[in-house]
Amino acid sequence: QVQLVESGGGLVHTGGSLRLSCAASGRTFNTYPMGWFRQAPGKEREFVATTRSSRPGAYEGYNADSVKGRFIISRDNGKNSVYLQMNSLKPEDTAVYYCAASIHGSPNFYTTSGSYEYWGQGTRVTVSS
User: Fold this and answer.
1) pLDDT grade, residue 47 (50/70/90)?
2) What does the alpha-carbon distance between residue 114 and residue 23 come to, in Å, rounded to a whole number?
3) Model confidence at 56: pLDDT above 80
4) Number of CB atoms found within 10 A of residue 90's CB
5) Which of 54, 55, 59, 88 is 20 to 30 A from 78, alpha carbon to alpha carbon?
6) CA distances to 1, 8, 35, 44 from 83, in Å
7) Is residue 81 a contact partner of residue 28, using CB atoms and an 8 Å limit?
8) What single-letter DSSP state applies at residue 113?
9) CB contact at 8 A, 14 and 89
10) Rounded to an integer, what distance in angstroms lies between the CA atom of residue 58 and that of residue 22?
11) Cα separation of 124 and 59, whole Å?
12) What does the pLDDT read at residue 27?
C-alpha cells in the first residue's frame, strides 16, 4: 500500500520559514514526479511546486509564480522523499499543504492535481500577520 506522509507544518509569523517533508512508502518514486499543492479555506486546491526527473539520480524543480523566489522544492531519492522549504512566508500562504506523487514519468512538469495518483493527508501551515 502506497502512503505519503507529510510533516513540518505549523504556525509561523509573517516573514518566517518552515520546511515541509513528505516521505513515501510502498513503492519508489525516484524517477517519477513528486510535488506539492495547497488548499486554503474556501478555495480550490492549487499547485505550489513539482519536480521531474532530468536524468537518473537528478531532477529539476518548478514553482508556481506565487511562490517563486520564496519556496524551494527538493528531493532525497535515497529516502524516497520530497521537501518544501518555505521562506518569507505571507498570510496568504496559509493553507493545508499536500504532497503528491505520480507513477507516470514525463518530460513536462505536472502542475495539475489530476496528474497525480497518490496524495498525502496534508499538513497545516498558518502564517500570522
Assistant:
1) very high
2) 21
3) no
4) 15
5) 88
6) 21, 10, 9, 22
7) no
8) G
9) yes
10) 18
11) 26
12) 94
Locate cell 496534508: which residue? Answer: 122
Cell of 36: 506539492
Give the chain's mean pLDDT: 95
For residues 25 and 29, what is the distance between their CA atoms, to the nearest angstrom? 9
CA distance 76 to 52: 13
Which residues are bridge partners to 119 per DSSP? 100
The Cα 19–Cα 9 span in angstroms is 8
Vertex 105 angle, CA 75 and 40, to 5°: 60
Alpha-carbon distance values, 123 to 86, 93, 108 (Å)? 13, 13, 27
Length of the chain measured in residues: 129
Copy the grid coordinates of residue 45: 486546491
CB atoms within 10 A of CB 7: 13
pLDDT in tens, 83-102: 999 999 999 999 999 999 99
Helix (H) or strand (E) segment spanning residue 74: strand 71-76
- 8-state DSSP, 43: S
**Torsion-angle region of residue 111: left (phi > 0), alpha (psi -120 to 50) or beta?**
alpha
